[in-house]
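The following block was generated as part of the benchmark described in Methods. Ligand: shikimate-3-phosphate.
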Amino acid sequence: MRARGVVRPPGDKSISHRVLMLASLARGTSELTGLLTGADVKSTARVLRQLGADISRIQESGVGISGSRLQTPDSRLNCGNSGTTARLMLGVLAGQNFAATLTGDASLRRRPMRRVTEPLKHMGADITARGDGLPLTIRGGKLRGLTYTSPVASAQVKSAILFAALTGGVAVTIREPYRSRDHTERLFAHLGLGIHERDGAISYQPSAISIPAFSLAVPGDPSSAAFLVAAAILADGGELLIENVGVNPTRTGFIVVLERMGAHVERVNLRDEGGEPVADLVVRPGPLRATEVTAAEIPTLVDEVPVLAVLASRARGSTVFREVGELRVKESNRLELIAANLRGLGVRAEALGNDLHVEGTEKPPRGRVDTASDHRLAMAFAVLGTVKRAAVRLSEKQSVAISYPDFFRDLKRCFG
Ligand code: S3P
């Protein structure tokens, strides 16, 4: 199969959530283009509408949002499958003078929330939960400032605290073990909100002014582009041009790792879009060699481990991903499922402690994959299914609607 053509990945999921929240808190009408139309972003829009925001239909061509003071919702806020919706909205709600109950689907209800509720409680939010997960009830109100060192490198934790500081009008300083994606910081800076970084600590000092309404074009999601990059590397020939991809260095660790593995991923036409670096990617097929992915690199590629593991299974040698225990609490237990599914396709792969080991092979992958309804597992293994003489059957395909509704159409068009 050859790579051919030009493709644009859907809008960045992380940025889409954040701009919807910020526009809902802003004074006036904001205009957003390039938003992801996936189910997770629709969950955020639905929750914000329940809180009184006026948001037009979510479409890539443009969405209008009239912000307002958020109001008590008349029912539970269902965050669907979206961890980002739940965790960031907890921050937004921490500074509101009313109670709201958040819940989600079975996968989301299993995911840890204490990492966010702990610091928010320190700030003065009143949160009642039965265990570590959803459903939970938050009553926001008068908050106090916080200086916090997060035990995990998590953009969701960091962003929840920043949103709480914004809605509560208090100052915060946050440190994290490794730098996680910095979209919230960039958006705050772009909107002129008082955010600074010094010696790795992020400080936000609220000013009296309210958030101005804004216009913004959301760049393409590098995490979605990663699947196309991977399929192009595994192709037998040709070249793929992937347009309008966000290349924020806190997100593009997968490109660094792929280059170390011998791949050619060229960034062209580098530009700035709303405070985020954006480029087009030119990808050509080629052989890969194994590598070691370090713990420090993981936050910059945390969502790309499934597809990198798939590529490692086609590389020469044995690849190890260090300290990927966090993958156990993503949309599924990704750590165990990557290893188990690779084994089911004839690849030697194992989770040892918090490390993931994958041995490359030239044998065609054949067998059934349990995606556990996890979008990134479905797409990663679909990519593996494009190699010569592969026979990969996915347990389901619908989950791609979470982050890349047109994934199978694009895959067929560029590699079919
Ligand atoms: C996200 C942060 C990451 C990532 C998730 C989106 C975000 O999660 O895995 O897909 O938009 O802030 P963590 O903050 O839990 O690392």
